[in-house]
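TASK: fixed-backbone design
INPUT:
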């Protein structure tokens, strides 16, 4: 009886030690995030294990490994390390279906567990751009749509016009475990969009290096615009000159049409047309006129005009814009050769004083004309004075002499002949 009691006490002591030891044991795990298609490592550790077994179970509570013993027939699941203190397994080629809560169990009394969540990131597919018509016409309104599938969590889409980011309208739709993301961009197309690259980029946590992207280059057709450039600012007779018809249009308006004053070019031997260029080999006065360049494509026609005026050729070179060199004072110790001094046209102290230049001739001519005008004026004044002096005096008309008592003009004349005492009436001629 004493032996039985002693055995019971021993077993109770051992059991108490086991319970006390198990209370200090707890499995430790961590959540895991992995990208779809990669490998997930699930690790469970325990400190001071008394050789109690560890076990991993999947979200469906199916045992994957019990210690080093594989329980589930799945070739993707492998044992990495198994000991009394650690159990690590790997899941290769992870899919979205593998996501969920995994359980590590420590078989003590009672059983202790720890849970780790496996997050699987869905990789977004390469985006596609729709809605682009080639070619687009200037003035059209188009909508570009960028779409990507399979992202988890939902991806972000960004638009770029060449290298500059622009804003689009984003829309997210759930598709099972993943998301479909769409972004649209509305454009009013003009000629400045021709050749511009529109890029849609996908930003996502699963894309750690290069983001997925798609690019479309916009082709825009537009009517031409024309300007004329010229190689000379002041065209002169005999010079070589080139006019260029610079036309911008898509499709390219080639060739262009050159006309003069509304008609064909008159002298094709000197006026050479090569592509968009009109070349004058040697200008003359007959080239004066209005030159017109016209360019066309299937969207329209544009023209520009240039008025050409050919100046006379310069007989003397134009004045130099370079300042003259500073004069060097003469050396008084060296005698000046009188022959060199007289032959130097710039030395004014040795010029012939009798030599008359062009300006002297002009002054003499003007002085002669003025002298003749003064002489003629004086002569006219003298003649007019003598004329006025000779015709100044007092005169009586016959009517005035007999007009006092005469009833009419005839009687006045008769009375005037016999009446010498009538009052004189004076009339002056000036």
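OUTPUT:
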């Amino acid at each position: 009886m004493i032996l039985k009691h002693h055995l019971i006490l021993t077993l109770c002591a051992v059991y108490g030690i086991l319970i006390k030891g198990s209370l200090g044991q707890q499995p430790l795990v961590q959540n895991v995030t992995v990208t779809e298609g990669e490998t997930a490592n699930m690790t469970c550790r325990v400190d001071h294990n008394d050789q109690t077994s560890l076990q991993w179970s999947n979200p469906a509570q199916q045992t994957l490994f019990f210690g080093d013993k594989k329980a589930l027939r799945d070739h993707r699941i492998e044992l990495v390390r198994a000991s009394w203190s650690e159990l690590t397994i790997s899941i290769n080629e992870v899919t979205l279906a593998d996501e969920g809560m995994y359980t590590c169990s420590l078989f003590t009394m009672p059983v202790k567990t720890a849970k780790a969540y496996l997050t699987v990131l869905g990789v977004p597919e390469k985006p596609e751009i729709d809605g682009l018509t080639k070619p687009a016409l200037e003035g059209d309104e188009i909508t570009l749509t960028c779409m990507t599938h399979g992202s988890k969590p939902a991806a972000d889409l960004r638009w770029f016009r060449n290298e500059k980011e622009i804003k689009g309208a984003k829309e997210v739709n759930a598709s099972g475990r993943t998301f479909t993301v769409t972004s649209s961009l509305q454009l009013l197309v003009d000629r400045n969009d021709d050749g511009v690259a529109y890029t849609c980029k996908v930003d996502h946590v699963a894309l750690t290096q290069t983001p997925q992207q798609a690019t479309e280059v916009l082709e825009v057709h537009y009517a031409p615009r024309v300007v004329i450039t010229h190689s000379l600012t002041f065209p002169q007779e005999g010079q070589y000159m080139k006019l260029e018809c610079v036309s911008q249009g898509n499709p390219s308006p080639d060739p262009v049409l050159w006309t003069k004053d509304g008609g064909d070019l008159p002298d094709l031997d000197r006026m050479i047309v090569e592509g968009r260029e009109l070349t004058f080999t040697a200008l003359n006065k007959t080239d004066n006129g209005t030159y017109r360049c016209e360019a066309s494509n299937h969207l329209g026609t544009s023209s520009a005009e240039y008025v050409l005026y050919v100046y006379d050729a310069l007989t003397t070179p134009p004045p130099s814009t370079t300042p003259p060199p500073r004069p060097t004072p003469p050396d008084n110790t060296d005698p000046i050769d009188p022959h060199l001094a007289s032959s130097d046209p710039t030395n004014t102290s040795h010029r012939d004083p009798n030599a008359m230049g062009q300006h002297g001739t002009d002054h003499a001519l003007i002085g002669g004309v003025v002298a003749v005008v003064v002489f003629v004026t004086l002569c006219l004044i003298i003649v007019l004075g003598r004329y006025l002096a000779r015709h100044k005096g007092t005169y009586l008309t016959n009517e005035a002499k007999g007009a006092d008592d005469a009833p009419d003009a005839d009687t006045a004349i008769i009375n005037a002949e016999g009446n010498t005492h009538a009052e004189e009436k004076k009339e002056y001629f000036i």
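COMMENT: The longest helix spans residues 358-390.
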